[in-house]
Amino acid sequence: MNDRNTPLPDVPHVVTVGLPHLTRGFETADRLNLATHLKVHGPLAPVSGERLVALAEDVRLLGRGGAGFPFARKLRTVAKSAVRRGVQPVVVVNASEGEPACRKDTVLINRAPHLVLDGALLAAEALGARLLVVAVTRDSTEASLRDAFDERGLTDRRIRNRGIRARVVRTPERMVSGEASAVIRAVNGGPALPPGRRERAAESGVSGAPTLLSNAETYAQLAVAARLGPHRYARTGIPDEPGTVLLTVSGAVARPVVMEAPSGVPLSYVLRLAGAPPLPQGVLTGGYHGSWIDAHAAHDAAVSRASLSSFGGALGAGALLPIGAETCPLGESLRVANWLAAESAGQCGPCRLGLPAAAGGLSDVLDGGGQAALEALREVTQTAKGRGACKHPDGSVRFLLSALHAFTDDLAAHVLGGGCGRPTTGVLPLPAPVRHGARHQEGAASGEKLEVDWTLCQGHGLCADVVPELIRMGHDGFPAFADTSVPLHLHDRARRAVRRCPALALRLERSRAESTVIAPRKFLEQGRG
């Protein structure tokens, strides 16, 4: 089984069920350069705007980044907005994968970058766009993409490829950095964070121009559909959701895999191919903004939006994470809930305060808080839902509430008894701590945790004011800490919280593998300097 707390590799092993579409040629090369790509897939002729919209409608192409928005409707909106305003639109490929459970877009850019570029350039030509932007999060992805640009003669310095310039934008590996508005903000030169207000990229995106923004897999699917045509494309998968689906399967599996499978394939078959337990305790569907389903639903569901939704799950960005019977499912959910709270953009109350409170509420339930703790948890999740400046609070609350619904027996054992009796093995992947000397990654974990000496703590609460994403005040008047490594983007505030502790009770402590303890007095001396 996958090792405890092990992050997913950039490019996991790839498995194909049935005839490959997106992964065609993977058996011949680790990376399909332009020449190999054309041998495998063949040339692609330009398509007019009307024909491209019709194609997207005929194959029922939905966005593969999680929301599932109809691609044809995006195309129409961008085209109409560009004509009405008399400006050239922009095409953006969102290949930012800040979620630890997703690697499908990273695999596409690393191994089949030209398939993604085919779809993006097809859309750019149909819309009359002159700028193509691709947002990525990882070193390997950026390198493969820049090589692909060179192979095609794409550049941002001068127009060389059919009148289209191309840019690569790097975003940090954070959960919120892959949100559409965060990507647009990063392309415009700002931080890769949601702007705190609802904006439609199709109306005003990059530099205020109408912008077609979609996920990397969506553009790759468009390129496949353009080559096959709607009838051949629809021969694979189910009628309502034709084609294939890219899935990232991790958790309690033999090894993490990215799998291309026809829509409608039984979920149990996919899990079996990945080496999941024959009877998983439950499966997290759609990733860390998705939903848990129980073992019975996992047995009966198929891999499609409609089927998973009917069982309370979600296809989302295609992440599937089974867990075995040896771990506490609510403990696993708490680890992720703590991480989601620390991933807050810090721009609104439901995100900055609500998510830490929700994670703390689940911790209270697992610590024997009983029915009162459970009711308090339900109340805080309701207040956080639907009030955030971006989708992060809603997705995080959905994940947490689905755990309560999927694992009712375990919940009852924790609320009414002394717990389920199982440890939390940490099978769900989270980011790795940054090694000393490694390149600074804004969204990565620092490898340090906040610890407190309870013989000194006097419950002043100043630390919770400084970094509420990691510390909250408990019902007993003393601070409660998120059981998670401090993310690098919160590290400075964590240090400030240590310095502000008047009782010198708080410290930052490295993991057991890095046993150095950073004491509060050292911080006080640094602060004076």
From TrEMBL:
InterPro entries in the cross-refs: ComplexI_51kDa_subunit, Nuo51_FMN-bd, Nuo51_FMN-bd_sf, Nuop51_4Fe4S-bd, Nuop51_4Fe4S-bd_sf
Keywords: 4Fe-4S, Flavoprotein, FMN, Iron, Iron-sulfur, Metal-binding
Cofactor(s) it depends on: [4Fe-4S] cluster; FMN
Highest rank taxon of the organism: Bacteria
Gene3D superfamilies, per database record: 3.10.20.600, 3.30.70.20, NADH-ubiquinone oxidoreductase 51kDa subunit, NADH-ubiquinone oxidoreductase 51kDa subunit, iron-sulphur binding domain
Segments forming domain NADH-ubiquinone oxidoreductase 51kDa subunit iron-sulphur binding: 330-374
Record-linked PANTHER family: NADH DEHYDROGENASE [UBIQUINONE] FLAVOPROTEIN 1, MITOCHONDRIAL, NADH-UBIQUINONE OXIDOREDUCTASE FLAVOPROTEIN 1 NDUFV1
Similarity remark: Belongs to the complex I 51 kDa subunit family.
Name of this protein: NADH-ubiquinone oxidoreductase-F iron-sulfur binding region domain-containing protein
UniProt source species: Streptomyces cremeus
Taxonomic classification: Bacteria, Bacillati, Actinomycetota, Actinomycetes, Kitasatosporales
